[in-house]
Amino acid sequence: MDTLQILGATAQTYQSGDYGYFQINTSGQISPPQNHGYYFIRPFIFNYAGNTSTLKTLVKNYGTNYGNSLNIRLYTTKGEIFRSWTP
């Protein structure tokens, strides 16, 4: 997440609600849905105006460097999904 911020992604405040892959409570905290099936999960939201191919490369590099010890799925508002692994 720090690399995303170095690339220009910024945190913002979002309205509370159920966004499908996560929920935002009235305090603005993000939490995963219940029974998501993973031991550890950390949802996050950033605003990023840069080229999404940079994000794709970033996520792929994490997959190459960390293999099975890290699983990243990054969803964009354009409907793109970038994974650190190949399903």
What's a concise summary of this model?
With 87 residues, this protein is α+β, with helices and mostly antiparallel strands.
What topology emerges from the helices and strands here?
Elements: H1 2-6, E1 17-18, E2 23-24, E3 30-31, H2 52-66, E4 73-75, E5 81-83
Antiparallel strand pairs: 1-2, 2-3, 4-5
> What would you call the structural class?
alpha+beta
| Separation, N- and C-terminal Cα atoms | 22 Å
DSSP summary: helix tally: 2
Low-confidence stretches: none
Radius of gyration, in Å, reads 13 Å
What characteristic shape results from the CA principal axes? Answer: globular
Helical amount? 10-25%
Element-by-element helix/strand order: HEEEHEE
The main sheet comes to: 3 strands, antiparallel
What amount of the residues lies in strands?
5-15%
Total E-strand runs: 5
Strand order of the largest sheet: 1-2-3
Mean pLDDT: 89
